């Protein structure tokens, strides 16, 4: 069938139909996909784009086991979550691997390694990073921040499953309310943020030391992302490195920008 995209998340296949089809036709196609791939136990339909602060997808059950929960493995880590209550993108698996490798390299240079991951979801970024740092025997502290209460429940379970609970702190809630008075300042800040108007860069700067490395996700054109970073950091950063980090729709891109703070 043409005009159908899909994501396989553990044993759950998510289909997106890009033109009208009757429900019967969708279920027949879903059953065909199950037969072709042995490890698929559930097929869901994504019925709309992901929007809002919590990035919760709109999903509809099609065939197979009637569940929205799955267990997914990537980068040597296991993640359990409910697809209908939390955000998770398997398409960012390679991006998480690339960024975690960059963080490990930075940790080799830093005398201290206090790392904050904002918009952490069910903890894929924090756990992949923690697992690599633990293997390298580096000293580190990881702080994970997420607004979605359901995601935080799964995140806590995932941290235990992957045995990285040492040196791991949850600071759950609204990222705008994070304060250096309560959690201190950081050497590295990751911002895999949703596609929202608020850049949260003012918060990141307040939680930074001089020379803190910030990894920022922006959306749209390269020029738009560069402009919003410069506008919201108000001259408090150095040179910006930027690259494409995947697409979010036809001809619409996610950008990964990396820069250091200059606060003196």
Topology of this structure?
Elements lengths: L3 E6 L2 E6 L5 H14 L5 E5 L12 E6 L4 E6 L2 E6 L10 H17 L4 E4 L6 H13 L4 E4 L4 H13 L6 E3 L9 H4 L2 E6 L9 H6 L1 E13 L1 H12 L7 E9 L2 E9 L4
Parallel strand pairs: 2-3, 7-8, 7-10, 8-9, 10-11
Antiparallel strand pairs: 1-2, 3-4, 5-6, 11-13, 12-13
Helix pairs in contact: 2-3
Commentary on this structure:
This protein has a 7-stranded mixed beta sheet with strand order 9-8-7-10-11-13-12. Strands 1-2-3-4 form a 4-stranded mixed beta sheet. A two-stranded antiparallel sheet has the order 5-6. It is built from 7 helices and 13 strands. The mean pLDDT is 94. It is of the alpha/beta class and 264 residues long. The protein is globular, with a radius of gyration of 19 Å. It has helices spanning 23-36, 93-109, 124-136, 149-161, 180-183, 201-206, 222-233, and strands spanning 4-9, 12-17, 42-46, 59-64, 69-74, 77-82, 114-117, 141-144, 168-170, 186-191, 208-220, 241-249, 252-260. Helix 1 (23-36) links the parallel strand 2 (12-17) and strand 3. It has 2 domains: 4-67, Met-10+ protein-like domains (GMP Synthetase, Chain A, domain 3, 2-Layer Sandwich), CATH 3.30.300.110; 89-260, Rossmann fold (3-Layer(aba) Sandwich).
């Amino acid at each position: 069938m043409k005009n159908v995209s899909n994501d396989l998340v553990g044993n759950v296949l998510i289909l997106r139909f890009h033109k009208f089809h009757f429900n019967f036709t969708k279920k027949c196609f879903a059953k065909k996909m199950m037969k072709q791939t042995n490890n698929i136990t559930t097929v869901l339909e994504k019925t709309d784009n992901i929007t809002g602060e919590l990035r919760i997808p709109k999903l509809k059950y099609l065939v197979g086991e009637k569940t929205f929960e799955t267990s997914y493995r990537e980068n040597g880590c296991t993640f359990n979550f409910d697809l209908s209550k939390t955000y998770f993108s398997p398409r960012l698996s390679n991006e998480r691997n690339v960024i975690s490798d960059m963080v490990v390299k930075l940790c080799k240079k830093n005398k201290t390694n206090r790392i904050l991951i904002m918009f952490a979801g069910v903890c894929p970024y924090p756990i992949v990073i923690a697992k690599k740092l633990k293997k390298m025997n580096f000293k580190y502290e990881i702080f994970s921040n997420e607004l979605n209460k359901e995601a935080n429940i799964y995140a806590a379970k995932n941290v235990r499953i992957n045995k990285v609970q040492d040196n791991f702190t949850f600071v759950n809630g609204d990222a705008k309310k994070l304060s250096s008075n309560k959690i201190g300042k950081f050497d590295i800040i990751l911002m895999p943020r949703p596609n929202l108007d608020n850049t949260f860069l003012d918060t990141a700067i307040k939680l930074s030391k001089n020379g803190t490395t910030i990894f920022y996700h922006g959306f749209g054109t390269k020029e738009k992302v560069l402009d919003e970073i410069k506008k919201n950091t108000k001259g408090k950063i150095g040179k910006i490195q930027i690259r494409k980090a995947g697409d979010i729709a036809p001809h619409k891109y996610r950008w990964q920008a990396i820069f250091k703070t200059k606060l003196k």
